[in-house]
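Subject: sequence -> structure tokens, single chain

Hey, anyone have a minute? Need the predicted structure for the following. Not urgent.
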Amino acid sequence: MRKLSRSWWQGLFVIVAVAAASVLTLISLRDFQRESVPPENRPIQSHIAGYVSSNACRACHPGNYASWHASFHRTMTQVATPESLPPDMDKLELAFNGREYKAERRGDKFFVRTRPENGSYAEPQQVVLVTGSHNLQILWLDTGEGRTLQQFPFGYIVADKMWAPVTETFLIPPNVKEYYSTGAWNGACMDCHVTQGQSRFVAGNKWDSQVAEFGIACEACHSEGREHIEGNRNPFRRFKIHLTTKSDPTVTNPASLKGPESGLACGQCHSVWAFNGMADKIDFNRYGAVFRPGAGDLSQRFVVQPNAPDHTEQKDFIRRTEPDFFQNRFWGDGMIRVTGREFNAVQASPCFRGGEFSCISCHEMHLDSPGQTDAKTWARTAQLKPKMDSDSACLQCHKDMTARLVAHTHHSAESSGSRCYNCHMPRTTFGLLHAMRSHQVSSPTVHESIAYGRPNACNLCHLDQTVGWAAQHLHAWYNQPVPELSEDDQAIAAGVQWILKGDAGQRALIAWGMGWESAQKIAGRDWLYPYLIYTLTDSYAAVRFDAWKSLRTLPGFSDFSFTYTAPDAALGEAATRAYEKWLGEVRNVNARYRPETAIDSDGRFRKDVFQRLRSARDEKPIFLAE
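Reply:
Had a minute. Here:
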């Protein structure tokens, strides 16, 4: 047989290689087309005019992209994947409110089956989105109704690695068993948990929701990026901007804005806002927010300050149609009482009136400042600038206060009573199962406690002292008038009153506050045990959770196990077990209890005081709308 030439073999090789490449290309095109077809069972990222997504910013701004990518803004809403979901999802089996839930995994997708009591498991629903990543994660299921979502009724508490009914991860009346209705994410949650969301209501309870990007991305703060990218393809334009101006008009930099406009870039989400009217609401639903960072107002919306003279017609409409709206979000004097609404507080602060004070006076959206920590720590400490967790936050403006700190505070310089935050931004807001600092800069008064029920800063440290004690010191030090006080306000510790007869919001703040190290050092620890143990049986789950967490900060109880979502009988048994442990193993028999704490020499409640205060508890339903 004639030997085939080398060139023939080379030609055959080329033909085979081309054919193989063609096949691979066709397979790749098929897979690309398959992957590029958007899913129909959840909201999708779509091409919204002007928006290009954070990936388009990465090439020119790698450092800013990296710090944003490390932030919890990015992961505010994510597509459900093995990486974004809580661990061991495929092993999850839970029960609540007469239903059982079982998760299963198929490849990289997760599904949930639901079985009613004495029934059969329904068809599986895919877990398609997850909201939250560092405190609480809430899962969203497909419904078979297009992009309309249904909430999985359990949330994952990240720090404690535990699942709990969503209704028991918020401060909600105990008789409320379902928090999110079908379509709630589409009609409300996505307003602030994505970048430029469009709810796109269809009919009934069906939605066709789309977003520019999941999570809070670059364009949420800097506005649309398409014009900026296209304009800066020209290197001469870039050099001209660098040489002649500090800013590029095609993009917004909140750091270069005046305080009110800069704060509003955050306030578009971090505020209680309302629509100007129905037409604006419909427009917002269809096309998303008109507001762009740098604007002086929210356009279709306004930041709600209950007691301010603006938007009276709209606020009167809210009072008529949703009577509990303000109570569920604000203290009686208009100070915000729920977390996530910090701009309301910033806007109401006296510092704000100067025009320079804003969110980025203390926080930064990128690791820009010299001396900044690593990205992971920065993200977990609220993206604060260096030293902004100290008095430096206030002293950057109030420079003269350093020389007269002790004269101003009447506390030693190293005392927690000389920390600016503790007096002027005390923990009087609540959310995500813990107390948080108010972002409304104010000065402590006893009037706020008597008139509105808000714990004042003095008694949040001095939990064992009376409101009257605080009033006398505020009068002596700052010439504040002493108001008319009840007998209890002059004889019973403020902390005792708030945790026994306060409303659920007050009880949650004090249950958390009893675990605050500064308060324990000042007010003592021995008397806290019985109050925290008793509060393990509170009717509000969020209050029980904080009582348990605070109890674990006390000597002898660091490993105390407790299921705060358990039935009432189990809660009672746990409280009995804790009380016996305290009396029999932990209690200091030589401890002395101040009479204001209403604890007798044996470490037991003074029954007359306890029963009287407990019977006077404010039982009005409290629903803190985070």
